[in-house]
Amino acid sequence: MADLDRIMALEVTGFDPGHWEARHVYAQRVEVFPEGSLMAFYEGENIGCVFCEIWPETNDNALQADHFALGHDILERHDPVHGNTLYIASMVLDPALRGRSLGLPLFQGCLTTMAQVYNQLHSALLLVNATWTPARRIYMGAGFREVARFEGFFQPQAQPAQEGIVMRGLLPRS
């Protein structure tokens, strides 16, 4: 339960309220796929987390906005036995530590860990808000590229709707 409390604290401090996932969504992710619920520690403190799902192969031209919907049920697409695409559902780093070059190692650590545990994975997908330039730099630094856009996907509070960008990258191989 303490991990879930920390996850929610990171969610609240790391994202605009229009981007928050509900507590029950994270609870389901941890219950259904604990191996894809990764917590990051720095100097003994929990500073971030990454949540993943394993999806069946999806052609970039067939990606649909509802696949990425906030609050989606992990059981709709998650298939750790037959799936071959890692979906990064959420990644957050404590805002107090942003700008210290910790985001890329957090992201790459997730990709490396998941590729080692799930040999069938070959690529990863994620959705990022078009206005989150530092996050997009992290993903591009890991070799990800834009494959789709969804107009008005994000609905931040007291701001106009914002575009979502789907990015895909290959997983590291040892």
Q: What is this entry, summarized?
A:
With 174 residues, the protein is α+β, with helices and mostly antiparallel strands. It has a single domain (2-170), classed as Aminopeptidase, CATH 3.40.630.
Question: What can you tell me about this protein's structure?
Answer:
This protein has helices spanning 2-14, 23-32, 103-117, 133-141, and strands at residues 37-42, 45-55, 85-93, 123-129, 145-154, 162-170. It has a 6-stranded mixed β-sheet, with helices on both faces. It has one domain (2-170): Aminopeptidase (3-Layer(aba) Sandwich). The chain contains 4 helices and 6 strands. 27% of the residues lie in helices and 30% in strands. The protein has 174 residues and is α+β, with helices and mostly antiparallel strands.
Secondary structure: number of strands: 6
The CATH class: Alpha Beta
> What is the number of independent domains?
1
Strand order of the largest sheet: 1-2-3-4-6-5
CATH third-level topology? Aminopeptidase
How much is the average pLDDT?
92
CATH architecture classification name: 3-Layer(aba) Sandwich
Helix/strand order, N-terminal first: HHEEEHEHEE
Give start-end ranges of low-pLDDT stretches: none
Query: What is the helix tally?
Result: 4
Class per helix and strand makeup: alpha+beta
* Beta-strand proportion: 25-35%
Quaternary structure annotation: single chain
Fold blueprint:
Layout: H1 2-14, H2 23-32, E1 37-42, E2 45-55, E3 85-93, H3 103-117, E4 123-129, H4 133-141, E5 145-154, E6 162-170
Parallel strand pairs: 3-4
Antiparallel strand pairs: 1-2, 2-3, 4-6, 5-6
